[in-house]
Every structure is written in structure tokens, then in C-alpha cells.
Amino acid sequence: MIEIDGSFGSGGGQILRTACALSAVTKKPCRVFNIRRGREKPGLMPQHLLGIQTLSQLCNGRLEGDSLGSEEIKFYPGEINGSRTSINVKFETAGSITLVLQTLIPPALFAPVPIKVVFDGGATDTFFSPTMNYFQHVFSKILTQITENCSPPVEINVIRRGYYPEGGAKVEVKVYPSKLKNLNLTERGSFKKILVFSGASNSLKNKKVAERQIAGVREILGKLKLPTEEKVEYYDTRCPGSQICLVAEFENTVIGTDNLGKL
């Protein structure tokens, strides 16, 4: 069994997510201790717990210590044999959907059949995690580069956005079986353009929040005279919120940055 100290580095939840995902891929059991020791409230929070429990379902595995606040778990992965082609993930909080996807996508790529994951609740855009736009236009683009598929290995359908603190998102994700290849990002190639995605709740439309976020971008990028494409969106959400994501497209790769609006 591989043993991993969760207090390493920043001591956050990423160690847990990555360890369990790679455990499922390699089929090697792991023990993660000192989980989130570097955080104000150490141990498993609802989002982390839901992520590893869903992963265990996906790969017919077994968990020990999977309870709220637990600072140690043992994960015994099983086979991803295609017996489970659809998984429903029910969030009772505004936990991050994109962070749970970081746990589920790597092993799902090795499934013999496509895997559909349906999220009911949770947040598409929340603090300390990638926004959904970043996940779609940066993470997924890089993921496509390391697979031999002709088409992207992950399809994301955002039915309803969700912000902190109420969440309430609805997202459907489909992951296709993929063969992986080496990735070389040492040469980004020539610059193409910058994509700007600015979105907010419908309740903030009269205040033109999404447009004002874009105006801030123009103030900086306008001086550089870079080719830019902008997209403004408003959504029906349970609570007010906004997000912005900038993606720089290059010949060989993409880079991005994002942030949330604060009321």
C-alpha cells in the first residue's frame, strides 16, 4: 500500500484528489493521512468526501475512514469494468464540481465504455477551485492534447450554473475511453488571441456586472492591442454571483486565469 502524507506542501485537498485518482488508474491501494492538515478545518469536508466516494463507486473499490472530518483514509481500488456507465453525484452543499471532476476524469479515461457523470447541486464557480469556463477551455484543451482521440475525451453540458453559497448547479459530463500519449509543453508556439468569458446571475443583469468585468479587462489589454474575443453571459441561479475567465490561445497550447466576483 502506498502511503501519502496529506500535509505536504500547502496541505490541501489536491493531494487527496490526485492520490485517489492515480490509485484507481494504477490499481494500487493507498493510505492518505494528515488530510488537509494545512487548512483551518483539517480533514474531509463534504466536497472531498463526495469525490472519493463517487470514485470508489466508479471503480468498484472500497474505502476506510470515509467520514466527515476524517484525517486519514484507505482506498482499495477495484476494476473499472464498464458495469457502471452512469453515475449521479448529489451535492447538498455548494461544493466545487470541477474539483470532483479532477478526481473522476483520470480513471474514467481508462474505462472500457463511455462514462456519464450527472451533477445535481454543487457549484460550477466557487472559491479556491477552477471556474467552469477555465475547466472547459483550459483544462479540457490540455487533456485533449494528451489523448490520441480525434475528438475531445470529455464533453461538458452545463444545464444550470451554481455559485457559492447556495450552489444548485446541474451539469452533465461524458468521459470517453482514451489512449494517452506524452505531452510536451516546452514550446508554446506563436500567440493567436485571448478569449474573455464574463458571466453573472440574471439578478445582476441590470447592474451590467458581466459587462463591467469585461471593461476592466479592456482597460489593461487594450493598451497591449492584442486580438481579443469576448463573451458575455447571464444565467438563472439560486443566488447572485459572477465569474470571469481569460484564456490565451497559442499555436501549441493554452494558458488561462480566472476569478470570482465579490458582492
- Mean pLDDT over all positions: 94
Element pattern in H and E: EHEHEEEHEHEEEHEEE
CATH classification, class level of the domain at 1-79? Alpha Beta
The assigned CATH architecture of the domain at 1-79 is 2-Layer Sandwich
User: Which oligomeric form is depicted?
Assistant: single chain
Measure the end-to-end span.
Answer: 46 Å
Determine the fraction of residues in helical runs and give it as a percent range. 25-40%
- Category from helices, strands and their pairing: alpha/beta
Biggest sheet character? 4 strands, mixed
GO molecular function: RNA-3'-phosphate cyclase activity
Catalytic activity: a 3'-end 3'-phospho-ribonucleotide-RNA + ATP = a 3'-end 2',3'-cyclophospho-ribonucleotide-RNA + AMP + diphosphate
Organism: Candidatus Nealsonbacteria bacterium CG18_big_fil_WC_8_21_14_2_50_37_10
GO biological process, one term: RNA processing
What does the model show?
With 263 residues, the chain is of the alpha/beta class. Helices cover 26% and strands 29% of the residues. α5 links the parallel β9 (191-201) and β10. The protein is globular, with a radius of gyration of 19 Å.
